[in-house]
User: What shape does this take?
Amino acid sequence: MKKILKNIPLILIVGLLLSRIILVSCTKEKVAVPVITNAPDPNCPDTIKFSTTITDMMTNNCAGCHGNGGTPPDLTAYASIRDNASAILASMGPNGTMPKNMTKLADTTVQKFSCWISQGKLNN
Ligand code: HEC
Assistant: This one.
């Protein structure tokens, strides 16, 4: 008991310091105001069409191996492309290996797939 009484000044000082730190960090904290704009993504000026651009991209570069019961994921069907979109994008990206053993797709082509994802993976 005596020990605690002896330490009361110390406890008070530490407490004061702590509250001071908390106060300072609170008042210094700036709340980021989200900027909401309807400006179109400059990287994706056009709406990418699944029925032409994405289907052609998959048919010409991927479907030979990824379709008709071949290696998963099936890249000939909308639902499968939609559900595997992130893995598909990564597989074509700088660290990806697809199309396997072939020349990598042009960045502008891969960008279109990325735009299709950010535009909501439409079945358009
Ligand atoms: C020559 C055959 C071949 C072609 C063409 C091909 N793939 Fe693949 N893919 C494979 C094989 C085999 C695997 C299984 C994993 C492995 O062996 O690398 C695979 C795995 C994958 C996977 C799952 C594994 C991962 O990397 O996340 C994805 C996604 C994929 N491929 C996407 C694609 C896309 C997109 C294209 C076209 C741009 C494509 N592939 C073209 C053979 C192919």
In short: The radius of gyration is 27 Å.
